[in-house]
Specification:
The protein is α+β, with helices and mostly antiparallel strands. The chain contains 14 helices and 18 strands. The protein has helices at about 15-30, 115-130, 145-155, 195-205, 240-255, 280-290, 310-325, 335-340, 345-355, 400-405, 410-430, 435-465, 475-500, 505-515; strands at about 45-55, 60-70, 75-85, 100, 110, 130-135, 140-145, 160-165, 170-175, 180-185, 185, 215-220, 225-235, 240, 305, 365, 380, 385-390. The strands form 4 sheets. The protein has a 7-stranded antiparallel β-sheet with strand order 6-7-12-13-10-9-8. Strands 1, 2, 3, 4, 5 and 11 form a 6-stranded antiparallel β-sheet that branches. A 3-stranded antiparallel β-sheet has the order 14-17-18. The radius of gyration is 25 Å and the shape is globular. About 40% of the residues are buried.
């Protein structure tokens, strides 16, 4: 039996030498990885919380679970597949995957193994055979769903695999052209909305507009709740996602209109509307929400009443978001309220007043589980339809927050804001004279209004008198406006911190929403 000083032993990482090696090699490596959520917080310490052998022992392949303590004292758990080898650069690895040598004189190097074909093959076998691996501190458990069960029965498991991109917050593996595996990098214990939604929509309800559920990889620690490490689904043949479809449509319109001097007014000609239509996307969105509001056989999905008693909390959360996003924890400076401040400071009190206006609302409807991070990039475009993907929710929120029931109109607002981004990104971020940009914005805005109108017509027609929608038209408009404004405020905060050049897009959305004379041409059959 190997000793704890053997680097190929799982318990090596719990020895003094293993902890020393983890503390020296892993912090600088993690700071270079796109998937490592915590670069700005400063790493205090890294150690291995658990380790599992995948494949033959001599292959040196391990799945490590890393515990990271940040400078402020908080900790987080991350997944890291590694391989120990003396090869200069093993097949399937990039130079950036090199973590470092065991010692300055050692020929053995530690590599991140996410792109290793052996890692992919070992994962698929673990799920297909529903195997359990015992680690020093817990159990790694593979489970297969209906799709993987079918493939196993027909002996049709894909033999080839490849890593899809490296600059993502999670890592994605493609098995042949059949299966898609998402490896979660930042981990949290408890039920995960991504796998919950796939299991319910595909495995139980057999809703055809999500990828079929294939299986899951779970970690069960000796102490604490289970942790989802990975999700296996069907690979959906598609020509693009809805974001790319929208951008392509807008760019074509801008090219076609380059020789004119006026923007698009009224409905777009039929030959300029992409298929599948945005009205169909609205229909699919409503069908998804109706599925979430269906028979309450599972307590985790049982719709709950939403009454006026919850409105003060909703408003308080929105006001807190406003202060954080605008970087004004105490509100705008007094001088700016008198007309001397920045654009953000000028908008702040108007937004605050708009949020507070919701306090007089007295709705009586139900809240349901929703997508939670719904935008054009979360929808795949097939030849004639749409497929909804990625039910993980907003990554910066806790699992409990992402699983919390809320109003379906939040998803609707997210998609409308995404149309706004798709419309304005090509013109606001492109070149050209000021006059050309104004013309492009007018053209793109015409497309955005027509696409939004079509989406809402499809949504409200399909949703009908669903219990998650207010029956009164004015109440629908008020709530939708509230969520649109809240989403745009969130976008301001994101763009301020990540893409300042994009901040103009949500600011324009906010100013449009705040216009008292705003017409409701976008709201379809509310």
């Amino acid at each position: 039996m190997p000793s704890d000083s053997d680097p190929l032993a799982e318990r090596f990482w719990f020895s003094a030498e293993g902890r020393r090696l983890a503390g020296e090699l892993l912090p600088p490596f993690l700071l270079r990885r796109r998937w490592f959520a915590g670069k700005a917080r400063g790493i205090e310490e890294v150690w291995v919380a658990d380790a599992f052998r995948l494949g033959p022992r001599e292959a040196g392949l391990r799945l490590l679970l890393l515990q990271v303590r940040f400078a402020a004292g908080e900790t987080a758990l991350f997944s890291l597949p590694v391989r120990l080898t003396g090869e200069a650069q093993p097949a399937g690895f990039a130079e950036g995957d090199r973590i470092g040598p065991l010692s300055p004189a050692s020929p053995q190097n530690l590599w991140e193994a996410t792109g290793d074909p052996l890692f992919a093959r070992s994962l698929l076998e673990l799920l297909a055979e529903e195997r359990e691996l015992l680690g020093p501190q817990g159990i790694l458990r593979g489970r297969r769903g209906p799709l993987l069960t079918e493939l196993c029965g027909s002996a049709d498991l894909p033999a080839e695999s490849r890593l899809l991109g490296r600059e993502q917050s999670n890592s994605s593996l493609l098995f042949g052209n059949r299966l898609f595996f998402k490896l979660y990098r930042k981990l949290e214990g408890g039920p995960n909305p991504d796998v919950e939604m796939h299991e319910r929509l595909s495995g139980i309800l057999h809703w055809p507009h999500v990828p079929r559920y294939g299986g899951r990889l779970d970690y069960e620690p000796q102490n604490g709740p289970p942790v989802l490490l990975g999700l296996l689904t069907e690979t959906v043949p598609h020509r693009c996602d809805a974001w790319e479809l929208a951008l392509t449509t807008v760019r074509e319109l801008l090219t076609q209109s380059a020789g004119t001097t006026s923007g698009v007014q009224g409905p777009l000609p039929e030959n300029r509307v992409s298929r599948p239509s945005w009205e169909l996307l609205g229909t699919r969105t409503a069908e998804f929400h109706l599925a979430m509001a269906g028979p309450p056989d599972d307590p985790a999905f049982r719709p709950q009443p939403w009454t006026g008693e919850e409105i003060p909390l909703l408003v308080a959360e929105a006001l807190g978001l406003l202060r954080r996003s605008f970087g004004m924890p105490e509100g705008p400076p007094l001088a700016s309220r008198k007309g001397d401040g920045s654009r953000l400071a000028q908008l702040f009190p108007r937004i605050e007043s708009c949020f507070r206006s919701l306090l007089g609302l007295r709705p009586n409807l139900c809240k349901i589980r929703i997508h939670g991070d719904y935008h054009l990039g979360q929808v795949l475009v097939t030849d004639d339809d749409f497929v909804l993907i990625d039910f993980e929710g907003e990554p910066e929120r806790s699992l409990a927050e992402r699983r919390r029931m809320t109003l379906a109109l939040r998803d609707v607002a997210g998609m409308i804001r995404s149309f706004h981004y798709a419309a304005l990104a090509p013109s606001l971020l492109g070149g050209g004279s000021a006059e050309q940009r104004l013309h492009q914005i007018a053209v793109a805005d015409g497309w955005r209004r027509e696409a939004t109108r079509a989406f809402l017509v499809g949504y409200f027609s399909a949703a009908g008198h669903a219990p998650f929608l207010p029956t009164a038209t004015d109440t629908r408009r008020t709530l939708l406006d509230f969520f649109l404004l809240e989403k745009a405020v969130y976008e301001v905060g994101y763009e301020r911190n990540n893409r300042p050049a994009w901040m103009e897009i949500p600011l324009r959305g906010i100013e449009e929403l705040l216009e008292s004379s705003r017409k409701w041409e976008e709201n379809g059959n509310l």
